[in-house]
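Predict structure. Chain length: 407.
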Amino acid sequence: MSSKKPRNYPLPANEKLRVQAVRNYEIFDTEEDKHYDALTSLAAMICQMPIALITFIDNKRQWFKSHHGTNLNENLREYSFCTHAIASEEEIMVVDDATKDARFAENPMVTGPTKVAFYAGVPLVNSDGFALGTLCVFDHQPRELNADQKAALVIVANQVIDKIELRKNISELAAVNLHLEQSEQRKDNFLSIVSHELKTPITTLKANLQMLERIKSDPLSPIFPRLVESCTKSVEKINLMVEDLLNMHRYSEDQLHLDKTTFCIYDLMHVCCNHVRIDGKYELIVEGDKNQLIHADEHRIDQVLVNFVNNAVKYAPDSRQINLKISREAENIKIAVTDFGPGIPEEHLPHLFDRYWRANHSSKKYTGLGLGLYICAEIVRRHDGNIGVYSKLGEGSTFWFTIPTAD
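Prediction complete.
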């Protein structure tokens, strides 16, 4: 093989996008496929050539999906004839005698053991106009293709494109089906949770009302006020669940509108969650700029903060300190709520803000529909902000969101 390297090869004008398009097909280094092998055999027979390849080219490598007449399954891009074909605007690139072509005369594929003398390649151009690779044929001696052979090679190349597009579509369809199946399962699980969670307070309410019916003639009975209080709590719980369901519907149907005003986020963080402060079990510490203004729906931002704090109390009950922090990040204000509880398993983190998703707490009993974080995410999204969570097992969790500044 010659020690001389071929001259630099040309690049398509859309090279970066082309390489990304090739990667999107996820075809590199996949197993051999008899359907592709049938097409290379057909191409070799039509053109009366000893070698035919189906190739794909990324930024460095030329890889052969099918290789008829050779055991090679890849090549360096700098030695590739096909890299010239995908950079040209020709329907088919033909090199009748590579030993006399300035582009290839010193190429190791020509001067080395492979002794390539003839090449013809049809770029495999997808529907977006990206040349992914080629269907090509080789010979060890100079040759020519007649018009019918060229036309037939183009037809076979179109069959290759159809197959790779079909393969990609099947893969995407399988991913969509899997997502739908998972979504439907989550929906079924959610409906089961709704049924269970609503049934509990309704059953309690029904039992209390039955007891009240029995003693209605004796309102001074010592059990009377306790039954009324229990009824009130059951109705409040049902009302909260129904409100969550309505909010979920409004957000999913884009029916909820924001009432934006400019207000001090520090002040809101000091007055929100008074139900937690009054209880006396937890210390809420607010840090950050005391004069920071944001332009947002104050009621909805309060809803997000209350949900974050309630979750800290619910899932990290032994974390007596809960930190609420304001910070500035470029053109955004970042609000974070941190607890020092058990933390969240890493595999749960990507799903926390999904609709219908709820973690399985096999050893603990938590009530509620699990819609809070989904609703929070929708509120933040409608404010053109971002939402997320950091967590480490044994060290605690930080739920955060950003809102564009008011100035």
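Summary: The two ends are 68 Å apart (CA to CA).
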